[in-house]
């Protein structure tokens, strides 16, 4: 049964641009996604209402994709909905943030370093270095005392993501002050766990019970040696 609130996006719509991963296809707006192992997804873009299960609040006109053709994908041969979770303005996460719905955390391999929503009461002094904050000169003492960071998630008592100093700080060579180390977390409207902070961590998504778990894992063990 087709949703009564489903509305196709026209090819002339201002969001239908290559920068957003879309392109005009006649009167419709189309999207194409390619991935490793010959994975590909093609379809059309639409707007639809979203219902928040906790509050039953309805948010209209969310942009999403409706796949019409999939290859090497678990839903091959079926119609599926496609949503992105990057920092693009058309991603589901950013659409929620734009409407003031900023609770929750996104885990995204497409984001290089972690983005953290700034709290208004946070007034820590920042030493700006390129696009990072909280930078200090590197000494032996500093290297030996760089802290780790733990992310705790509401309603997830067993889920604690521990980020080691190696994944939390970046070493940067500055022509004026020499080597510096900077906190690899940048401010943003919504918290996103980036790729750097996901290194050497095993993620378990329990869809049945709506839970997420983390465990340390040496990712190098999953690689193949050069022959």
Verbal overview:
This protein has helices at residues 92-98, 140-144, 165-168; strands at 7-8, 22-25, 28-34, 40-52, 57-71, 80-82, 105-107, 114-117, 133-137, 149-153, 156-163, 169-174, 178-183, 185-188, 191-193, 201-206, 211-216. The protein folds into 2 domains: 7-83, no CATH class; 105-222, Acid Proteases (Cathepsin D, subunit A, domain 1, Beta Barrel), CATH 2.40.70. The protein is mainly β. It is 7% helix and 44% strand. It has 3 helices and 17 strands. Strands 1, 2, 3, 4, 5 and 6 form a 6-stranded antiparallel sheet that branches.
Summarize the structure.
This protein has 227 residues and is mainly beta.
Biggest sheet, open or closed, and with what strands and sense?
Answer: 6 strands, antiparallel
Please state the CA-atom Rg, rounded to the nearest Å.
Answer: 21 Å
Number of structural domains: 2
pLDDT under 50 segments (min length 5)?
119-131
CATH architecture of the largest domain: Beta Barrel
Shape: globular
User: What is the class of the largest domain in the CATH system?
Assistant: Mainly Beta
CATH superfamily of the largest domain: Acid Proteases
Query: In percent terms, what proportion of residues is strand?
Result: 35-45%
Spatial separation of the terminal alpha carbons: 54 Å
Average pLDDT? 76
SS class: mainly beta
Number of strands: 17
The ordered H/E elements are: EEEEEEHEEEHEEHEEEEEE
Question: The CATH topology of the largest domain is what?
Answer: Cathepsin D, subunit A, domain 1
Keywords, separated by commas or semicolons:
227 residues, 2 domains, three-stranded antiparallel beta sheet, 3 helices, 17 strands, 44% strand, globular, protease, peptidase activity, Peptidase_aspartic_dom_sf, Peptidase A1 domain-containing protein
